[in-house]
Amino acid sequence: MSKSNSIPTPARESGSIHWFKYASPQTFFPLAGKIIPLFAVAALVLCVAGFYIGFFVAPTDRQQHDAYRIIFLHVPAAWMSMVIYLVMAFWAGIGLIMNTRLSSMMASALAPTGAMFTFLALWTGALWGRPTWGAWWVWDARLTSELILLFLYIGFMALQASIDEPRRADKAGAVLALVGVINVPIIYFSVQWWNTLHQGSSINFRNAPTMAMTMLVGMLVMALGFWAYTFMVALLRVRCIVLERERHTDWVKEYLEKTA
Q1: Average model confidence (pLDDT) across the chain
Q2: pTM for the complete prediction?
């Protein structure tokens, strides 16, 4: 018999089982509990460092003076608002296609944080726009599409909350999330597709950054801090969802008895 037709080795089989076992809420729950403190520490350190670099170390802009410093909150929040929606839609789609419970729970856990960052991006954008454009709000293509993104987050959460049966709620929310994905590239490319007041991106993969290196570092550090915060909060929230949905199982009853 040819060795190429031999069955997979036990090591490979055990490796596959090792990763796929965390698709179960029961096995993922304790893992999430262990890594939450790591993301909490990372979020605190990175956000404080990013805030310090952006507001105390980065040089004053020649045209916008110190008013520009709001970008160290605004830009990372805007990035997170779009990325979290894509990740949320991904997990919702996996849950819809493969009928995996934990995937749908992850989508539900990400939605409030995505909505929070979207609101933060809109709010800080208004603070930045007042001294720059002379108005708190304009119906600019990017601002309008970002507002639509906030409505999509709210609609996703409201739709799930309006359906009592969790699996039906997951499927309905997944459809809405997947349809709403089309809005993300509209947000990103709006300044290129239409003539808008919103300035173009200072960071892209085709050209060198148009800002000072200190500004870039501060913005990226803050973005990493927001990422760590997102992981921490999403894992906390998904653990709560798991306890709520699995409350009738023996392992949840045992866990609640131990922690009571």
Answers
A1: 85
A2: 0.85
Q: Which residue has the tokens 């001294």?
A: 131
Q: What is the pLDDT of residue 7?
A: 39
Note the pLDDT tens digit of each residue in 156-198: 999 999 999 999 999 999 999 999 999 999 998 876 666 665 5
Nearest residue to 222 (alpha-carbon basis) of 53, 11, 29, 25: 53
Closest alpha carbon to 109 in 236, 197, 238, 252: 238
Query: What's phi and psi for 24, nearest 5 deg?
Result: -85, 130
Spatial separation of the C-alpha atoms in residues 137 and 133, rounded to whole Å: 9
